[in-house]
Amino acid sequence: MLPLKRKMDSARQSDNQIGLNVGGKIYLTTRDTLTRYPNSFFAIMLDSDIPSDRDAQGNYLIDRDSEIFRHVLNFMRCGELVLPRGFNEFDLLEREADFFSLEALEVALREAAGMSVGIAVGTGDTRSTYMMTREALMREKESFFIDMLDGGKPVPKDTQGNYVISRKNSLFHHVADYLVRGGILNDITSSELQQLRKEAKYFGLQILEQHIQSVECMINYRSIPTGDTFIHFFYSENGPCVAYSSKLLVGHRARLSIETLWKGYEIGNEVYICWRSGP
């Protein structure tokens, strides 16, 4: 027969242990961990009198992403954000943080996503360094930069800790601008556009290649013998809506160079209908 003190300790320990069935995966933790943040989903769930659904083993049933939940639970255990190298599902984890009312986790995620990464591009004395956020570098999920941050693609670093990439420095500012703003929004010559396509292929930026195609489409409209202005609205799931305009000017067409026949504009995050205007 167990001594009374050991029985009481065992009962307290059992009461402190909590099982969570998250999307079919069982997580075992403690009441202390789950109530660490007083206004969270878990604190309210455990401290309220409202009955919660449980499975046959008595684990609390929570219909959320079972894989991403481990990062939520680790945050509550440690009180700080600890993510595996190359983690790139910040948006998904932030949605979970919002669902579970973990404001501290949301703040930590925004700070982590905004951390600057140095990239030195070029060769020899022509090298330039760009400071970019992890969030910008992860715009396209199958890109060179994802592999770089994940360690899947070994990229050397300089003495300052910047990643060193031996590519054309004169073109990378277009790549960087696309990663930050989601479109080709700076002036670019037709020859640079062709070279940029090669850079997009090298860096595995498939959506950038589609943007390049849109710009080329606007350039090709210069041969249409009317004064119409053609506008192509480009929208992708992970980027803003960008409008590319042929920007044809009636009466000045013969004097316009190919580089002045289009212009890109970021217009927000909504989908719009394509249209054209003319006389």
Automatic annotation (TrEMBL):
<dbReference type="GO" id="GO:0051260">
    <property type="term" value="P:protein homooligomerization"/>
</dbReference>
<protein>
    <recommendedName>
        <fullName>BTB domain-containing protein</fullName>
    </recommendedName>
</protein>
<dbReference type="InterPro" id="IPR011333">
    <property type="entry name" value="SKP1/BTB/POZ_sf"/>
</dbReference>
<dbReference type="Pfam" id="PF02214">
    <property type="entry name" value="BTB_2"/>
</dbReference>
<dbReference type="InterPro" id="IPR003131">
    <property type="entry name" value="T1-type_BTB"/>
</dbReference>
<dbReference type="InterPro" id="IPR000210">
    <property type="entry name" value="BTB/POZ_dom"/>
</dbReference>
<feature type="domain" description="BTB">
    <location>
        <begin position="16"/>
        <end position="85"/>
    </location>
</feature>
